[in-house]
Write a structure and sequence with these properties.
216 residues, alpha/beta, Rossmann fold, 9-stranded mixed beta sheet, 6 helices, 16 strands, binds 1-O-pyrophosphono-5-O-phosphono-alpha-D-ribofuranose, binds uracil, binds magnesium ion, Uracil phosphoribosyltransferase, Upp_B
Length: 216
């Protein structure tokens, strides 16, 4: 994991398997089914990386041979919050790692002309004592990511209890997000080159929602 020198809250997950799977996903010939499978797999690997620092405690258990104090994850409970639609594919992978995690949903789409997020659904679990992981494959202008964190703040979740997991980020969006929420750590597999005139990430992977669901 590499902390980006320009954005103190941005971490690049450079594990070879994550990088390899991202390359397969970027390929425009990848089928809808292949894209969806890869998004689940890569999210599982990314989830493994970003949960490395979860605190452990011990619990007394009995093995078939003896009693022991065995390690278990301590403290805060997790909530996974996909930003609809494409975040749903990432949430699936994380749930395989932490089946007991609650799941909230934030429905947003980017307005074609203004590039501002339009909210159409918010449904979230109770905030108390919970760490929230927002998942959305694309962080382009950063407007949707900032909006999603604002929604959680209004719900009573402080920035310290929020993490953002993206697959690909643009420098423009990383800067916008850092300015708005410097305490929220962003984890991504790649920081790409730039945004094009339609605010798509270059080289990117296209429209993540459309590629995952086979829409246009
Ligand atoms: O950083 P931004 O410029 O805000 O762009 C990123 C957003 O765009 C995509 O969603 P989209 O609006 O395409 O909705 P969809 O998932 O329903 O296709 C993506 O999944 C993010 O939510
Ligand atoms: O490149 C981009 C930018 C926004 N949303 C996407 O799905 N892809
Ligand atoms: Mg889309």
């Amino acid at each position: 994991m590499i902390n980006h020198p320009e954005f103190p809250n941005l971490f690049i997950l450079d594990h070879p398997l994550i990088q390899h799977k991202l390359t397969l996903m970027r390929d425009k010939e990848r089928s809808t089914g292949g894209f969806r499978t890869l998004l689940r797999e890569i999210s599982l690997l990314m989830g493994y990386e970003i949960t490395r620092d979860l605190p452990l405690t011990t619990e007394r258990i009995d093995t078939p041979l003896t009693a022991m104090d065995a390690p278990v994850i301590a403290g805060k409970k997790l909530a996974i919050v996909p930003v609809l639609r494409a975040g749903l594919g990432m949430a699936q992978g994380l749930h395989e790692l932490v089946p007991s995690a609650r799941e909230g949903h934030i429905g947003l789409y980017r307005d074609h002309d203004t590039k501002q997020p339009v909210e159409y659904l918010v449904k979230l679990p109770e905030p108390e004592g919970r760490v929230f992981i927002i998942v959305d494959p694309m962080l382009a202008t950063g407007n949707s990511a900032v909006h999603a964190v604002d929604v959680l703040n209004r719900h009573g979740v402080p920035d310290e209890n929020i993490r953002f997991l993206a697959l690909v980020a643009a420098p423009e969006g990383a800067a916008v997000f850092y300015a708005a929420h410097p305490k929220v750590k962003v984890f991504t597999a790649a920081l790409d080159s730039h945004l094009d005139e339609n605010a798509y990430i270059v080289p990117g992977l296209g429209d993540a929602g459309d590629r995952m669901f086979g829409t246009k």
